[in-house]
Amino acid sequence: MPSGKTHTRIWKQVKKFLIPASILLFIFLEYTLVYVYPYSCAGRHCFTNSLLIAVGYPVGYLIGKIVTPDLDMPGITETEWAAMREAKLLGVIFTMYWMPYGYFIPHRNFWSHSYFFSTAIRMIYLFWWILFFRPIQLVLVILLGVYFGLASSDALHIWFDRAYKENKNGLQKR
Question: When you count CB atoms within 10 A of the terminal residue's CB, does the N or C end of the chain come out lower?
Fold first, then answer.
């Protein structure tokens, strides 16, 4: 399994492709989704759903830097240490907020290290409070994009966990 530092290094390398991926996602959705469910409106302002999803995608990927599948560890992870070091009190609050998740979700099992399902669990744990906001339809469409971005970050993490092992010479294929 790659270490937390290795996961962060890989995450940063892939981050370069966020803007092109968002543009491609927008183009794809604009020519497919717009025919099914075209708009979300807030008051007098309407937005294409494909734009909202494409905007949420990089946000989700960036959230994936700290909301990783390894938050299921009962101890403090490399990511949580970095959050506390860089964000001080906010990092401590973040770490405390995710501690119950770490104690109740077993490490590296289906609930925390599966494609899409474990991302949905972390999204619900992270964004449950959004249900109290209005207009909920607009927020949910943006969160769909955030979900796709976080799922991309999680998939990268999970794939490297399963495909590679780390030793003193670097990453090696299993």
Answer: C
Three-state secondary-structure class, residue 41? strand
Query: In the chain, which residue ranges form alpha helices assigned H by DSSP?
Result: 4-15, 18-30, 49-63, 78-87, 89-104, 117-127, 136-163
The per-residue pLDDT for range 44-59, each reduced to its tens digit, is 777 788 888 999 999 9
**Tokens (6 digits) for 56:** 């949420």
Q: How many CB atoms lie within 10 A of CB 59?
A: 17
Taking the chain, what is the end-to-end CA distance rounded to the nearest angstrom? 10
For residue 73, give the H/E element and its range. Answer: none
Domain extent at residue 126: 4-173
Dihedral pair phi/psi, residue 106, rounded to 5°: -65, 145
Q: Which residues lie below 8 Å from residue 100, measured CB to CB, with a gap of 6+? A: none
- Name residue 43's amino acid: G
| Phi (first) and psi of residue 20, to 5 degrees | -60, -40
Report the 10 Å Cβ neighbour count for 37: 11
56 contacts 26 by C-beta, under 8 angstroms = no
- The yes-or-no verdict on residue 105 having pLDDT over 90 is no
Q: Report phi then psi at 126, rounded to 5.
A: -85, -35
Domain count, the chain: 1
Tell me how far apart the alpha carbons of residues 64 and 154 are, in angstroms, rounded to a whole number.
7
